[in-house]
From TrEMBL:
Record-annotated DNA mismatch repair protein S5 domain positions: 201-319
Annotated GO CC locations: mismatch repair complex
Function: This protein is involved in the repair of mismatches in DNA. It is required for dam-dependent methyl-directed DNA mismatch repair. May act as a 'molecular matchmaker', a protein that promotes the formation of a stable complex between two or more DNA-binding proteins in an ATP-dependent manner without itself being part of a final effector complex.
Keyword Membrane in annotation: no
GO BP, sorted A to Z: mismatch repair
Full protein: residues contained: 3 to 325 of 643
Similarity section: Belongs to the DNA mismatch repair MutL/HexB family.
Organism: Leptospirillum ferrodiazotrophum
Keywords: DNA damage, DNA repair
Keyword DNA repair: yes
GO molecular function, one term: ATP hydrolysis activity
This protein's name: DNA mismatch repair protein MutL
Length: 323
């Protein structure tokens, strides 16, 4: 089983930023309203994510690290309806097979929490641990037992860049969650909970002013598109401000980027990419996120309809700027 886990880990866990992405998604799935991240990529490396979510019940704790152990689906029906970001039960098992993991947690129904120390190949140590409701997971020494993968890690600076990017993508999808990112020597982001994505964007990109951005939304029950558009004169050739979220999850979707480009045609010069943060909300049964284990790609069942609506909404939104 250990080997199977290590192989699968290669798919999900490529580098420190993939660990962070998975841990953040688990915190959000657990309903956390506050999540703080500390990373130290010097030396053996540490990624610690602490949340005020549901916590894990004492009896469930050993299960969390088993492959395909997920608390998020219990039937095929649930699988189709899954709203949460994880539901494959792979991330913790994968991380725990290639790093030293400690987890401290308390569920609200437990009077005392627990601490679990996991070293691949050994029996986990579980002991009582006092802490508020929620979970803190520390991942140390990533790939210590997979030297070939460790060799491919870049400089701490480069890896921190990837980590910051992963953090920002989550922050953009969840403006209503208080999020912090720091290293031992500095606070990189401290983002208060916000009511709108526009305010979160201003927190993340302090060089933009409120009048540079425009919020627009359209649609109904089964498909809602909301977006924040960046004023054409704030666009830069060397930077792309374009992000797409489906049910709050950041995704790649070249076809929908094309819809954004088409919707912006005539509004911005051809050599620039339109600046847009686009949020699609649709019923989970209209998409398939299990195309790839990292869930960065989704298949949309009403792709054509979404394409034309998005193109139209982008074009409409630009009109808002000229008033
Ligand atoms: P998945 O998210 O796909 O269910 P994971 O391997 O990411 O699988 O997590 C396994 C299980 O561990 C989750 O289903 C959840 O029950 C539990 N878990 C992990 N992280 C947290 C957390 N921060 N708060 C509460 N429960 C957690
Ligand atoms: Mg998960």
């Amino acid at each position: 089983a250990a080997l199977v886990n290590q192989i699968a880990a290669g798919e999900v866990i490529e580098r420190p930023s993939s660990v962070l992405k998975e841990l953040l998604e688990n915190s959000l799935d657990a309903g956390a309203k506050r999540v703080s991240v500390v990373v130290d990529l010097t030396g053996d490396g540490l990624i610690r994510v602490e949340d005020n979510g549901s916590g894990i019940m004492k009896d469930d704790l050993p299960l969390a690290f088993l492959r395909h152990a997920t608390s998020k689906i219990s039937s095929f029906d649930d699988l189709v309806r899954a709203r949460s970001m994880g539901f494959r039960g792979e991330a913790l098992a994968s991380i725990a097979s290639v790093a030293r993991v400690t987890l401290e947690t308390r569920h609200q129904s437990d009077a005392v929490g627990s601490r679990l120390e996991w070293v691949p190949g050994e029996d986990p140590l579980i002991s009582p641990w006092d802490r508020p409701v929620g979970t803190a997971i520390s991942v140390r020494d990533l790939f210590f037992n997979v030297p070939v993968r460790k060799k491919y890690l870049r400089s701490p600076q480069t890896e921190l860049g990837h980590l910051t990017e992963a953090f920002q993508r989550v922050a953009l999808g969840f403006p209503d969650v208080h999020l912090e990112l720091s290293t031992p020597s500095r606070k990189i982001f401290s983002l208060p909970a916000r009511h709108t994505p526009l305010l979160r964007i201003l927190d993340l990109y302090p060089t933009f002013q409120e009048e540079d951005l425009l919020y627009h939304e359209r649609g109904g029950e089964d498909l809602r598109i909301s977006l924040v558009l960046l004023r054409a004169d704030r666009l830069r050739k060397d930077r792309q401000f374009q992000h797409l979220f489906v049910n709050r999850r950041w995704i790649r979707h070249p076809a929908l980027f094309e819809a954004i480009t088409q919707g912006a045609s005539g509004r911005i010069s051809r050599d620039l990419h339109p600046g847009a943060w686009v949020y699609l909300d649709l019923p989970p049964d209209r998409l398939d996120v299990n195309v790839h284990p990292t869930k960065r790609e989704v298949r949309l069942l009403d792709g054509d309809r979404i394409f034309s609506l998005l193109r139209r909404v982008i074009s409409e939104a630009f009109e808002g700027f000229s008033e």
